[in-house]
Structure formats: structure tokens, C-alpha cells
Amino acid sequence: MEYRTYDASVCVMTKIFAMIGGKWKPIILYLIKNDINRFGLLKRSMPKISKKILTEQLRELEQDKLITREVISATYPQVIEYRLTESGTSLRVLIDQMLDWGVNHFRNEYTEEMMREFQNKKSVLEVSVS
Amino acid sequence: MEYRTYDASVCVMTKIFAMIGGKWKPIILYLIKNDINRFGLLKRSMPKISKKILTEQLRELEQDKLITREVISATYPQVIEYRLTESGTSLRVLIDQMLDWGVNHFRNEYTEEMMREFQNKKSVLEVSVS
DNA sequence: CAGGCCGGTCACCGGATGGTAACTAATTGA
DNA sequence: TCAATTAGTTACCATCCGGTGACCGGCCTG
């Protein structure tokens, strides 16, 4: 008997998760979509991310062509702007759908306790959403 | 000036990725959807996964209510069947959409070299797809 | 001329994630 | 009696991802 076999190293979905599964990446994509598009703005919007990690995640998103990095002013206080690529924008749509699924899933499948714990962490599902 | 702030620990998308971002999980969901629903079948379909990891990932998917585990026969050679829950089924639809996005993204944004490397790894995009 | 703002880099560290190999129970068939 | 099948468990190990804190250059303001 033969089986069609599968391997994670060759799985498209695994590659996609590698691109956007990073701890802060969905949030970063969400923020950039909403014109929070400069390093400092992003940093201030995510108080718990470090500069190093933020830089890393931005570089990776750029390499994967989900965002672009544009140097507006190289001197002075530097100004650098990030934007979603077309591909990045279309992905963000899918992420939003998945988000809806998640909100629903948690509502249906999770116990009241879990929901309460959720609330305690101030995770307002619909707001701090991505 | 005030900013709405965001934190990964409270981000729904981060939770979703934690659920299905595991190295083998998209593949497992795909296989179970296609009635490759027993431990041994799954193992043989993913030659490079170890029993321990397969068990772990299955348990996690079960805890997150994406699959169910049903003991068909406890004695003999045991028989245990896994199935997608309703929630798991609806998620798999979204994963398939994301997959389409991925195939497209790789085609458009990646260089020819990367595509060639891809081919060398026998990653036939449309087939070993999830 | 010290300090702040901007957008980073660098060396180092720790915990989670994934992986290996050996071992388990219970039953059937040769 | 020995091997094979089923579906795991256990102890241990290695790698990687994310995180911390210090530091950088250049300009402007007090």
C-alpha cells in the first residue's frame, strides 16, 4: 500500500505561517494598514516590543514583500515610512476573516472561565483584535 | 499625545497562530479532513514526524477543539479515530483560502531562483499544498 | 555642551518548540 | 515462543525565537 506523503519543509501553509506567524507580525500589519507607519509610532503602539525585535520583524516582512520601507528623510531626525504592498493588503483581508473565525470559535468553544480569564487580561476581543 | 496600544499576549490572531501555527498542524488538519484519520495513517503520511510530536500536536488540536479523538476499539490493536469538529472544518476553509493567496504570492513576488529552489525541494505548490 | 528625538545595531541570554531513541500494553498469527 | 500490529509514553537533547540592556550617529533645543 502506498501513501501520498507530506513534509512540513515543503508545505505552503508552513511557509505562510513562517511569514506572518511571528509574535508581533499580525499586529504590525494591522497597524501599518491603519497608517501607523513609522518606527517610533509602531514602537509606541506596542509598548512591550523591543526595538530590536521590531526592527527584525519589519525586516522580515519587508523581505517577504508584505511591506515596503521608504526612507523619507535620511538626515535630521530620520523619517522612514512603512507601507503594505498589494500582496500584504490582500493578505490582511484574509487575516481579518480568520480573526472573525477566532472570535466566534472562542465564544463557542471556550468555557466561561476561559472567557473570564480573557476579560481579566483586558482582551476585548473586538478591539485589540489583531 | 495618546496611542491605542497593542500587546501580543492579548491578540486574537496570535492565539489563532498558537493553535494552528505548529509545524505540522495545517498538514494534520488537511489529512484528517481527507479521512486520513488514524494515528498510524497520519504517521505514514508524514514520514518525518515522530510519534511523540504527532501525539503532542493531536492532543493540542483536541484541546483547542479543532478535532475530536474517538476510541473505536480499546483492546486488540487499538483503533482510534480523529475527526474535524465543525469549528475545525470551517477553519480549514479559511486555511485553503490562505493557501491560494500563498501560491499566488510566491508566484508573483518571488524571484525565479527562489522558485527553482522550491522545485528542487519537490515542493509542487498545488499538491503538497497544506 | 548636555540631553532628547529618531531609527536603529550589538552581544548576550533563557525558555519554548521540535526531535531522537528506547520502552510500554495487549492481542493475533506463524 | 517470537514477531508484528496498534497507539502511544518517557527521558533526554538541540536549535531557534524572542527578549534585555547598552550603545551608535546626527541633528536640534535649552
Automatic annotation (TrEMBL), chains A, B:
GO terms for molecular function: DNA binding. Coiled coil: none annotated. Keywords: DNA-binding, Transcription, Transcription regulation. Pfam families: HxlR. Residues 11-110 form the HTH hxlR-type domain. InterPro entries: HTH_HxlR, WH-like_DNA-bd_sf, WH_DNA-bd_sf. It comes from the Bacteria. This is Helix-turn-helix transcriptional regulator.
